[in-house]
Amino acid sequence: MLETTVAGSLPKPSWLAEPEKLWPQWRLSGAELEQAKRDATLIWIKEQETAGIDIVSGGEQFRIHFVHGFLEQVEGIDWQKKTKMGIRANRYVVDVPTVTGPIGRKGPIHADEVRYARAQTARRLKFTLPGPMTICDTIADAHYGSRPEMAMAFARLLNDEARELAALGVDVIQFDEPAFNAFPRETVDWGIAALERAAAGLACTTAVHVCYGYGIKANIEWKRSLGAEWRQYETFFPALNASRIGQVSLECANSRVPLSLLGLLKDKDLLVGAIDVATETVETPEQVMATLQAAMEFVDPARIYPCTNCGMAPLPRTVALGKLKALGAGARLLREKLG
Hints:
The chain has eleven helices and ten strands. The strands form two sheets. The chain has a seven-stranded parallel sheet with strand order 1-4-6-7-8-9-10. Strands 2-3-5 form a three-stranded mixed sheet. The chain has helices at 30-51, 68-71, 111-120, 132-136, 147-167, 179-182, 184-199, 217-224, 232-241, 285-296, 317-338; strands at 55-56, 74-87, 92-105, 124-130, 140-141, 172-176, 205-210, 247-251, 269-273, 304-307. The protein is 40% helix and 19% strand. The protein has one domain: TIM Barrel, CATH 3.20.20. It is globular.
């Protein structure tokens, strides 16, 4: 009970990539880079184990970005044809690559990193993939003509990838869908259907991560505009509860999400975000426990998995490690209290 896990990315060591950046540049190349990615993955797996994290991940050390790490190995994308596009309902505008033809995988994308991570730990292993709606909100379309159609095309590719990763020993495959909070109505209309297609037929545990974004300026400012209560979850949680996805990862710590909304997910296991990634202040174990206890007013503790709110890639490495330790210690405190 109260088994801990992480939501996504962990900071890259300064010898691997530029530190504390969401879109860092690699500091090595060729064989040296590939070995450094493995070294960083091993470090974070062992740090998670020491911190008391029960379901570990490789911390996305092989990827510059959680979406583009997948897209880089997809055919039909022109990386030279950049399109200026508003992302997450125009929260920020960036130049993005463009889909110019039918998409397809060039081959297995994340298999090598999963083989490596699986060999480094006896604990259950989680792997994160971008969700199809979030991919469509991170790349421009000059081929399909509609986001729902393009999302289904990406969902099929994601499913092929996810099936291969599960066969390599991944215990939990999580699809990251921050776009759900930016487009709650579209999430109900077609986003969840695309998500289910991406997860179809998987024998391992499936999860979806729906947060309010990394702790970067654009997201922090957006949160300030949302008012006293953040009720985006209310729109699509009933449909998500009716889906075939097994777990839902969501943001709780230092958020304005009414925790009563957790009751809308009565049939799911919940990855309760008890670590705030938008601050460099490290939580105490008691603060982590308090967040989990607040969630327990609406969710049976047997369905709660203590987690981080989001990925921690932009944080200092020492801060992220402190937060992992607080998460593990807070869950232990609560387990002891519950007996």
